[in-house]
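Pasting as-is:
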Amino acid sequence: MAKSSVLGYPRIGADREWKKALEAFWAGKLDESAFQSRLQELRLNHLRKQQEKGIDLIAVNDFSYYDHVLDTATMFGIVPSRFEYEGGAVPLSLYYGIARGTKDATASEMTKWFNTNYHYIVPELNGATPTLTENKPLNAYREAKEKLGIEGKPVILGPLTFLKLSKGYKVEETDAWLDRLVPLYVQVLKELAEAGVQWVQIDEPILVTKIGGDDIARLKTIYETFATAVPGLNVLLQTYFESVEHYSEIIQLPVQGIGLDFVHGLTGNLKAIQDIGFPADKFLGAGVIDGRGIWRADLREKLGLLEVLSKIVSEDRILVQSSCSLLHVPVTVANEAKLLPELKEALAFADEKLDEIVLLTKGIVSGGTSIEDALAQCDAALLGLKQSNERNRKDVQQTVAAISAQQPQRSRPFAERHIAQQDKWQLPILPTTTIGSFPQSAEVRKARQLWRKGEWSPEQYESFIRDQIDIWVKLQEEIGLDVLVHGEFERTDMVEFFGEKLAGFAFTQYGWVQSYGSRCVKPPVIFGDVAFVEPMTVEETKYAQSKTTRPVKGMLTGPITIMNWSFVREDITREQIAYQLAYALRQEVESLEQAGIGMIQVDEPAVREGLPLKEQDQATYLDWAVKAFRMTTCTVQETTQIHTHMCYCEFHDMIDSIEAMDADVISIETSRSHGELIHSFEENTYELGIGLGVYDIHSPRVPEVEEMTGMIDRALRVLNPQLFWINPDCGLKTRGLEETVASLRNMVEATQIAREKYSA
């Protein structure tokens, strides 16, 4: 008989209770005991919900106090040497210090979790001596069993994936590091088996990426070691986000189950299982419910897929489950009271996905009237959305099809534009600027809330926003910045703000997901054809420009970032969605230019997040992503300077695509990995304007002048000072006023030192 299984559940709570507890603890409003109690209550509620819905294999140890990769590192005592760790269980103060930085030590690097919008803390192995500090999966298992009677399925990040996601070791040290790590995993697994654990889920998502024969040999050694050391423990080797590479070798590993993604990896995984088969003595974790998307599953289609699989794998060896952890979707649709009925009916968040999993499990086992009723309801919901007016705007579809058939390009090449822009703006060498947003204080958030509730008139709110702009324009001038911004005080979120003003979007009230740490985002839902309605940013930008003689940048979020940071429709391609967004944003760029704004920043921090995991698909994606950016910006005059901004990620393999975007200036968020990116430019020339972030805005510390001077010097060894800009590495929305001003003053001082050096 098939069983239902979930790979993980959202940590944050339906109303972000997790986030609120973390931030209260960091602010000293909760002591550690109260904090631990609050998180345990939330964790148990999550487990209880899955238990009540009838999930057979409930994941435990999927809950985290910040990030599951950081959890794995600290469980093994892998702590950067600058934190002066002395061994033993890692205290919360140190745990959060690694993630957020302290006054004496910088935070560890943060980067994206495969091709999602979740970001993890990168483990630093150099100098570490791994040891088991505490068995976190065991603690989670015991808690679930003792408190709720749940026979949980502990989740552990696998050793090969953990190592591949880490930094601070050489490739030739891979085997030596596995020799250190694998015995610790064995110790964890032995203790789990001794406690009576029946199934353990070991996540190895690295197996869907391109790995070589050496890694397959290592994988075999790892899991043979586990099987020999802990022969009675059922191991579910779990993959997700794509189809596995080396399928025939992986299914021969000595594990009791293998989890495959039959949503995002459907084509490859289904072909492999049909062509090669599946071992009769193993369980198949069939990830048929999308753990990353918010749309209701086509239950008839999913049931058909499970029936196909059940002809290859015995039904009693199928685990019906989510394609990945439900970490990537909001908690429940139930609380959404303001959505269009046809849209709400077509949505499924984490709790609704639990219902779908249980229903499909029952469906392949027994069928019957109940499943037929559910299928009919599903059919009606999906058809209602398909036939909605929002998905059938012929004017948008035809115009975008015509524009996207052309190759967008600026009227003159960069070298000529640069001369014209220098002549117009007369900026000093190494011009300074910021990325866009300034601190959104409690006062700013309160004002927005009063306006949204109708307690403030639009005029009162507009006056308040203008007051904030006045304050920060003056501050920027006093600090000595060369190119200013208006501060984005009217914006809640860089994607949501634009989505609220474009046709084709919908917004949830409680659709929060975790991005990094306590940072939660509420992605817009692109459910219809996207269209420009009216200017979105002109009023505030034009007002700020009227208050200064220095240039003020217009600030937009780019088409690829809006798409990648939204939940998008599935009935058309992502490329088509990107072009619809690009055309709408082009009209905003043109509106800014017509209003006299001559510097316009179109941020694309999430371009790489959408990069397909399969190497053979990446060039095509980058081609249309670059094209969408150029569609947005190509119609401006040569003297209009186009800026863009990109966030934490590996850039070395896409520098050509970044250059192809043809932005006049790109700023890249690099302060936590500055050296690695500089190395990329040592190997690749870059001939456009560029700013590498000289300090980390995600940490509350104020960087010293010497620290930033060192970063500037390192960059200018390989980059042209005449094309180099100096800026923080991201927006300053989450920072406080005093630390922001102090950091920017230090940045300007570091710039003055550099100007004296490089102007000579």
